[in-house]
Amino acid sequence: MVAVHELSWEEVSAPDFGARAAWRAAVAEIAAKAKDKLPECNGRVDSAVKIVLAGDVELLADGTAKVASQSNGTTAYHVVNGHCDCRDYEKAPHNFCKHRLSVAIARRAQELTIAKLADTNGQTEQPASPQASPAVPTSTLPEAPASINVHLELAGRQVQLTLRDSDEDRLLQRLDAVLQRFPLVVKPTDETPRCPKHGVVMKLNHGKDGSTWLSHRTADGWCKGR
After folding, report:
1. Mean pLDDT of 25-50
2. Distances (CA, A) of 51 to 46, 68, 80
3. 7, 57 in Cβ contact below 8 A?
4. Global pTM?
5. Per-residue pLDDT tens for 127-143?
6. Taking 80 as the threshold, does the pLDDT of residue 112 lie above it?
7. Where are the domains of the chain?
């Protein structure tokens, strides 16, 4: 049995290496499936493909990944347990930012390329079924190592904001920033006058002489709370 080794970007990019065409075909195939499953993320999928083909995705041995920034050559985003530390992660549909998508496409395309090369070369080891590990998971997203929910009032509406991160201290810092941005609104207490004897709401009355008094009707007549 010949072991199938993990493909490196240098091998795939080499002009005389046969895996290059298989790699690009695999990336295109996985990207097409991702667009079918997440049509609202089509633009991000296209951006993810560019990242993958540029060789800017580094799949690490511990299952995490680093993705180079396209706007800043010194910045790299980390994708850990399905979470990315870029700004787009929280607002992207289903949290599928282009960095997270690029990692999924790169990982699945590598598996698919190895399987196709193994089949082409007649190796005895059976490749995994392409459907066994889809490029974009259809099940519930895995929980981040640290997450927190906070209830806020925006434009008069109560909303729940969920923050996720791979580091608990960083998550608390983000929560502090959110709470400073949306300070607690203390609503005034109910100052409606109530009868001290009966506990019911009292009506403010105005006399012809300018006088005012509070009262409410009872079965025995009007009560002024005394």
Report:
1. 91
2. 9, 8, 18
3. no
4. 0.47
5. 444 443 344 444 334 44
6. yes
7. 9-132, 146-181, 195-226
